[in-house]
Write a structure and sequence with these properties.
Number of domains of chain A: 1
Strand content of chain A: under 5%
Number of strands of chain C: 9
CATH architecture of chain A: Orthogonal Bundle
Number of helices of chain A: 9
Strand order of the largest sheet of chain C: 5-6-7-3-8-9
Shape of chain C: globular
Chains: A mainly alpha (271), B mainly alpha (311), C alpha/beta (243)
Structural class of chain C: alpha/beta
Largest sheet of chain C: 6 strands, mixed
Helix content of chain A: over 70%
Order of helices and strands of chain C: EEEHEEHHHEHEHEEHH
Number of strands of chain A: 0
Helix content of chain C: 25-40%
Radius of gyration of chain A: 22 Å
Largest sheet of chain A: none
CATH class of chain A: Mainly Alpha
Distance between the termini of chain A: 12 Å
Structural class of chain A: mainly alpha
Strand content of chain C: 25-35%
Shape of chain A: elongated
Oligomer: heterotrimer
Radius of gyration of chain C: 19 Å
Distance between the termini of chain C: 33 Å
Order of helices and strands of chain A: HHHHHHHHH
């Protein structure tokens, strides 16, 4: 058992380092990139990775690393707001249904069950295609709403468990309002379980954004995001620019890997 | 038996509610008359076409008519191509289902033995390697696996030609060879998740008292795992596999496009774009039936594995 | 003497869910329970588990959704001390937060006054100011129970209900906590409703004892009478067992 623990703090550490590293580079990319991401250079078309261009250049001579730094920013921006809005609403729904119970609980959970039965990426793709309004905020709203049930479920389980604790009975006896109990007394205790769920949310949001932009139903054509860049890069696989797709895809993998290791580590730490 | 009927009734009810909601929603998004005639048509022409297509009747009447046709296998007529939806789906539906099933079978074949192997060697080198490897595979989106497979097997080794889809009508061998790569793309991340799930589930089961007493009575650890833990550990895995089967169908929609497999995913996206409502409704219903079906099967399987669920 | 609590003909029952073959069963947990509690009095409520003693406490505190009869409070805010100090304190919060929360809800004191009261109450229960920043997980069982008592008393209640407050503690710590409860009673003029299964513990704290069995009060008398002349055979049994 001892080495299992070790492995899990190892997961946590690697996940933390990787996530911090990726997020830092992406944040830097919002203010500074080695080259202008959209600057074309006919003399340096389709170059392989080198010291000057660590991920090479694309068919228009644009620096791929600069474009990845920029495009990953959009992906992370979307993931951040999807998780923020989805988890806030989901935790609230879970708190209300879990703490108050009754008919609202039954109905809302039934709805959540029906939604979660369907793959959320499929639903998101159908809805986005129907809306036909590409753009990051459309993606954010659609994904955030579709992410609500999974957060609600985790949060509800915790609220049901914690509300039976003696210290919550005492808080009620002190005259604390239900809202106060949900926010100040229960929430901090639910946090160790909510945190890995939120981290996994980032993992899923990056994946969903990338899938949808890859298919062309995500961000608009003028916005660069990792998914859109990968679908762009895919067109040049056959013409001999494989590192473009590999670098963009590798960035997506590292981003997701960081979040998933972090979530795994957090989950195991709790036990 | 009563349990099965009850579950079946619940699934059918959900499908009915869902079909009505999606019918109503898709009726709202696209007026087929504008789709067909364009925005410059004369009011007379519009009214005539509406009457011809039966759109002047109420939503409920049209819904029940559509439902009646759907259950008898008549999926309606495309607004755009003016041909039966059933004919448009034909081969595409077969391709998507074959792809989903291949992916599912692959995921099961890879994950179950590896999960059991990993659990049996808990804490040893093999287990640690598999755990770390797993964690990495889970982080690779299936569309990126697809790209990697295309680069390696399509461009470097040249086992197949990406984009050059072979229909099963032309060559079954060529078809299966072509389809194995998209199937692997869909299966790998799911296999990794299932492997992890099974490993955790077995190890949890091994901690339980009845398993401990059984190997305290002289049964080997591996024996206890085989006779007791594995069977009970399968319960959560079955539910997870059902979710997998549903997710894989969604995954197909992305993967089909990368490998240029003519499947219902691309048809769905194109039809939504064209506001070809009958095609969209038919595909969405087929997807919904698939999702309800796999969840229904998983519930029945869970019940046969564990009679305690019967309540 | 003034009454602080009146319990009049309280009955409660719950129905067990009927299955396919079993009919619904009505389980009576309290039957016509009546007693008064006076200011400054420490009343012991004794009985085995399932005797209804915890149910009556829940009814008094308003946690029981349905019962017949009447419960009249002559004081505001009765407080509760739980048996298990490990579950009675919010594990995610510091002792300072736990003690400040009731004062915040009460709402009449500013920050400085709240802090003054917290420090004073911590001193009362034998803990120093430093404990304010500690979390429950960093405390021993006895210290936790002291914090629980402080949290109950910080809003200056007149009536405190204690549900087996010492049964989860070591014997030496038990004595300390009982002594603390006695001190607090004198200092604040508290009334106790003290629920216990242990006659020895009741003897150290209570003036009067009610003995319950299967939801019915079988005996209600002063502590000396209960020990010297137990009337009901069940009371006799309990007293014998405690010797």
């Amino acid at each position: 058992m001892a080495d299992k623990k070790q492995q899990n703090t190892w997961f946590f550490k690697v996940g933390l380092v990787l996530t911090v590293f990726m997020v830092t580079i992406i944040l830097i990319g919002q203010f500074w990139t080695p080259y202008d991401p959209s600057a074309q250079n006919a003399a340096e078309k389709a170059l392989g990775p080198s010291l000057a261009h660590i991920m090479g250049t694309d068919y228009l001579g644009r620096d791929i690393f600069s474009r990845v730094m920029d495009g990953a920013g959009t992906t992370l921006f979307i993931a951040f707001f999807v998780v923020l809005l989805g988890s806030a609403a989901g935790i609230l729904v879970g708190a209300l249904t879990g703490y108050l119970g009754g008919i609202v609980d039954t109905v809302l959970m039934k709805i959540c069950d029906s939604i979660t039965a369907f793959p959320s990426i499929l639903l998101a793709m159908i809805i986005l295609k129907v809306l036909d309004r590409p753009g990051k905020w459309t993606v954010i709203w659609v994904l955030a709403i579709l992410f609500i049930p999974s957060f609600a479920r985790v949060s509800r389980t915790e609220y049901v468990r914690i509300k039976k604790q003696n210290y919550i009975s005492l808080a009620r006896l002190e005259g604390a309002s239900p809202a106060r109990i949900m926010a100040l007394h229960i929430l901090p205790n639910a946090f160790p379980v909510l945190l890995p769920a939120i981290t996994i949310g980032f993992n899923n949001a990056v994946l969903a954004e990338a899938s949808m932009s890859f298919l062309g139903v995500g961000v608009s054509a003028t916005e660069a995001s990792l998914g859109r860049m990968l679908s762009d890069a895919q067109n040049y696989l056959v013409t001999g620019l494989p590192w473009y797709a590999l670098c963009v895809g590798g960035t997506i993998v590292l981003l997701i890997l960081g979040f998933s290791l972090l979530a795994e580590g957090l989950q195991q730490r709790r036990k | 038996m009563q349990y099965v009927l009850k579950k079946l009734a619940a699934a059918v009810t959900t499908l009915l509610v869902l079909s009505f909601l999606s019918f109503a929603a898709f009726e709202m998004i696209g007026d087929p008359v504008t789709t067909i005639l364009g925005t410059n048509a004369t009011p007379e022409a519009v009214a005539e076409l509406r009457a011809e297509m039966g759109l002047d009747r109420s939503l409920f009447v049209r819904y029940f008519e559509w439902l009646g046709h759907f259950v008898t296998g008549d999926l309606g007529t495309s607004y755009i191509y003016r041909m039966p939806v059933r004919q448009m789906l034909g081969e595409k539906l077969v391709n998507t289902l074959v792809l989903t099933l291949m992916g599912f079978v692959l995921a099961v074949l890879v994950s179950i033995p590896l999960g059991a192997l990993s659990a049996r060697n808990e804490g040893r080198g093999l287990d640690r390697f598999l755990t770390v490897f797993n964690q990495i595979v889970m982080a690779i989106p299936s569309f990126f696996i697809a790209i990697l497979l295309m680069v390696i097997f399509g461009l470097l080794i040249r086992i197949f030609t990406p984009g050059n889809f072979v229909s099963y009508k032309d060559s079954l061998g060529g078809y299966l060879l072509y389809m194995i790569f998209p199937a692997i793309s869909i299966a790998l991340p799911r296999a990794a998740m299932t492997e992890k799930m099974l490993r955790t589930s077995i190890l949890e089961e091994m901690q339980k008292n009845y398993v401990r007493t059984s190997y305290a009575r002289g049964m080997s650890r591996a024996g206890a795992m085989k006779t007791h833990a594995l069977k009970n550990a399968m319960l959560p895995v079955i539910t997870f596999l059902a979710a997998n089967a549903a997710e894989m169908l969604a995954g197909c929609i992305v993967i089909e496009q990368i490998f240029s497999v003519p499947g219902i995913g691309r048809l769905l996206m194109v039809s939504i774009g064209q506001r070809d409502v009958p095609v969209v409704e038919a595909i969405v219903m087929i997807l919904a039936v698939w999702v309800m079906l796999v969840h229904f099967i998983s519930e029945i399987l869970s019940e046969t594995f564990d009679p305690r669920m019967r309540s | 003497m003034n009454k602080i609590l009146e319990v009049k003909n309280v009955s409660a029952s719950y129905t067990t869910q009927g299955g396919a073959f079993a009919r619904e069963k009505v389980q009576i947990v309290l039957h016509n329970v009546s007693f008064d509690l006076y200011e400054g009095e420490a009343l012991g409520l004794v009985g085995e588990s399932g005797s209804g003693k915890t149910t009556i406490a829940r009814a008094i505190l308003g946690f029981l959704p349905k019962y017949e009869g009447e419960i009249i409070h002559y004081s505001k805010r009765p407080q509760l001390i739980f048996q298990d100090p490990y579950t009675a304190l919010n594990p995610a919060r510091t002792v300072g937060w736990i003690l400040e929360e009731p004062l915040k809800i009460y709402g009449k004191f500013d920050k400085a006054e709240r802090r003054r009261r917290i420090v004073e109450m911590l001193e009362n229960v034998g803990l120093s100011e430093e404990y304010m920043t500690r979390r429950p997980s960093e405390l021993s069982g006895g210290q936790r129970q002291r914090v629980s008592i402080a949290a109950a008393l910080i809003v200056r209640p007149k009536l405190v209900i204690a549900d087996e407050p010492v049964s989860a503690l070591d014997v030496t710590i038990q004595a300390q906590i009982l002594q603390l409860l006695n001190e607090m009673r004198e200092k604040y003029g508290l009334s106790y409703l003290f629920i216990s299964h242990d006659m020895n513990v009741v003897y150290q704290l209570c003036d009067r004892v009610i003995v319950m069995k299967k939801g019915v009060i079988v005996e209600d008398n002063t502590i000396d009478e209960i020990f010297d002349h137990p009337q009901h055979p069940y009371t006799r049994e309990l007293v014998e067992a405690s010797r």
